[in-house]
Amino acid sequence: MSPLSKDTCLACGQPNQCAMAAGADPLTCWCMQVPVSQAVLDLLPAHERGQRCICPVCARVLAPAPAPAEPRA
User: Fold this and answer.
1) What's the half-sphere exposure (Cβ side, CA atoms, 13 Å) at 16?
2) How far is the C-alpha of 54 from the C-alpha of 34, rounded, in Å?
3) By the 8 A CB rule, do 60 and 51 touch?
4) CA angle at residue 26 from 21 to 28, to 5 degrees?
5) CB atoms within 10 A of CB 31
6) pTM here?
7) Which among 7, 42, 44, 61 is most buried, taking Cβ atoms within 10 Å?
8) How many CA atoms lie within 13 A of 70 on its CB side?
């Protein structure tokens, strides 16, 4: 199996929309504008972290659901 390119999402294999992979200014990347939880990043293979990005959809979908609010008395 050939390795995925830097513009492919680690989680789903679709385009990750990474500005850096496209040769653009990193500050213009979607991930600089949208919080990506550490829990999502922890799901990625350790050897790929910091090497390739996930896509915005996976950043949202893989994020842990917030804990339900406690009922008020």
Assistant:
1) 22
2) 12
3) no
4) 105
5) 18
6) 0.69
7) 44
8) 2
